[in-house]
Every structure is written in structure tokens, then in C-alpha cells.
TrEMBL record:
GO process annotations (BP): cell surface receptor protein tyrosine kinase signaling pathway
A molecular function (GO) term: transmembrane receptor protein tyrosine kinase activity
UniProt name for this protein: Protein kinase domain-containing protein
Pfam families hit by this protein: PK_Tyr_Ser-Thr
InterPro entries in alphabetical order: Kinase-like_dom_sf, Prot_kinase_dom, RTK, Ser-Thr/Tyr_kinase_cat_dom, Tyr_kinase_AS, Tyr_kinase_cat_dom
Domain of life the protein comes from: Eukaryota
Keywords: ATP-binding, Kinase, Nucleotide-binding, Transferase, Tyrosine-protein kinase
Domain Protein kinase intervals: 1-224
GO cellular component terms, A-Z: plasma membrane; receptor complex
Length: 259
């Protein structure tokens, strides 16, 4: 890995809160928490996804998504990233928003505007997807297939929360310190311990400790063969919303508040 350099981040107050611009000079600006651009929605048995304001009172929550389907999505993304890994291409912007799906539910990884061939050190001041970045990408602008593996685990978390915004209670400015302290995204309520263990492996602070995409595909395929369920909606309360609300996130992070 190349020699470390002091990196600060320049924060934007516009709608592109998912992206920030690396800055090699420390600035006096203060970071504000990013705001998700996804709609809060709840699943009902008949009709489209509705926002909480549109949700009829005391309506029973029905689960219309097949957990096996979500697992298949995860495998498809991992296989696509395995292909890039074999071609020695670093995507640098893997996120759920950059995965396309057609009417046959075939997924395709898109948006290669930030992709580079092989290991890459970014020295230009361009916007980057901060909340999907690995610690070495944040601190040193160092990107590799292992930083893509980190981002893939964020995508798994997005799938488990049906569109949750990563680190909703952590500001952009505090995120690197948050990760350096060993803290990570909390396990989604409907996510299995086995899947969360995989996420934590992908979020290892040491890149070489993270699995390759080929190993991830092998693991996910074995889970499907064993007919294990990674995402289970039946354990959620009827008033649970997707993505999880800030209050639900705080209860997950601080269990004592739920008492």
C-alpha cells in the first residue's frame, strides 16, 4: 500500500449527500448528517408501497417479498463483482442504487464512472460515495477489489433493510472515527446471524482479512443449497417500516431505550 497521506473531506449541502469530495487540505467546515433520499414505505397485502402518511391505521403487515429472491439478488451481485475481480477492475461505486434489474429479475451492475483498472490511488478531487467506502479508501484514497468487498457488505445491509441509509445517526465528518473505533453498521432486525457475520468479515479493517468475491459467491451458494434463510420478515413487528425509521435505528443501537 502506498505511503499514507493526510486526507480531509469537503462536504456538500446539496442533494448529493451520499457523495463527498476528498480534500488534501484540512478545512474548517463542519459536516452535517446526510439525509436519505429514499422514501419510507411499508408493505401491505394489496396495492402499491405506501408512505407512512398514506398508511391506513391498524392495517396488518403482509410480506410480499420472497426471502429467497433477495438472496438470489445478493448472489447475482456477488457473481458480477467476481467477474470484475477476475478482470482486475475496481468499481469504486458499488451500491444498491447502481444495480439495475429487468422484468426477468436479472441484476446488472452499472455506473462505471469511477471504476479503474487494478489497484488505484485517487489523487484528484472528485466526489466519492463516502458511506460505501472502506476505511483505507477514506483515509488514504486507496481502492482495490477489497474495498469493493467492503461496499458489497453495505449493499447486503441495504438489501436486509430494504433500502436503509448507511450510518443514519453518524455525520459524514465523524464517520471515519466511528469506523476506526471498530464500530460497524448494526445487524438488520430481519437479518440472520450468519449473514451479519459475513458482513463483518467484509468490513474487516485489514483488507487482506476480507474474503474475495469468489469466496463470497461460494459461501452464498452453499447457504442456498442448505436452504438457509438470510432475510426473514416474519420476525418483524406489524408496524415496522422499510427502510427502518430513525427511532428504530436508535433502539437497535441502544437497546436500553426500548425498555
Amino acid at each position: 500500500m502506498n505511503k499514507k497521506q493526510d486526507i480531509s473531506l469537503h462536504y456538500f449541502s446539496d442533494s448529493s449527500a451520499s457523495y463527498v469530495q476528498p480534500n488534501t487540505q484540512m478545512s474548517g467546515s463542519t459536516g452535517q448528517p446526510s439525509i436519505t433520499q429514499t422514501e419510507w414505505s411499508m408493505l401491505i397485502s394489496d396495492g402499491p408501497l405506501l408512505t407512512p402518511m398514506d398508511m391506513p391505521p391498524r392495517r396488518k403487515l403482509e410480506y410480499i417479498l420472497d426471502p429467497k429472491e433477495l438472496q438470489n439478488f445478493a448472489v447475482q451481485i456477488a457473481r458480477g463483482m467476481t467477474h470484475l475481480e477476475q478482470k482486475q477492475i475496481t468499481h469504486r461505486d458499488l451500491a444498491a442504487r447502481n444495480v439495475l434489474i429487468n422484468e426477468r429479475k436479472i441484476l446488472k451492475i452499472s455506473d462505471f464512472g469511477l471504476s479503474r483498472s487494478g489497484v488505484y490511488v485517487n489523487t484528484k478531487r472528485k466526489k466519492v460515495p463516502l458511506r460505501w467506502l472502506s476505511v483505507e479508501a477514506m483515509r488514504e484514497n486507496f481502492y482495490s477489489s477489497k474495498s469493493d468487498v467492503w461496499a458489497f457488505a453495505i449493499v447486503l445491509w441495504e438489501i436486509g433493510t430494504l433500502g436503509g441509509f448507511p450510518y443514519p445517526t453518524v455525520s459524514d465528518m465523524d464517520l471515519l472515527n466511528f469506523l476506526d473505533e471498530g464500530k460497524r453498521l448494526e445487524k438488520p432486525d430481519n437479518c440472520s446471524d450468519e449473514l451479519y457475520t459475513l458482513m463483518l468479515q467484509c468490513w474487516s479493517k485489514t483488507p487482506d482479512m476480507r474474503p474475495s468475491f469468489a469466496e463470497i459467491v461460494s459461501h452464498l451458494d452453499s447457504v442456498i443449497c442448505r436452504k438457509r434463510v438470510y432475510v426473514d420478515f416474519t420476525s418483524l413487528k406489524p408496524n415496522y417500516s422499510f427502510p427502518p425509521t430513525e427511532q428504530q435505528t436508535e433502539v437497535t443501537t441502544n437497546p436500553k431505550q426500548s425498555k
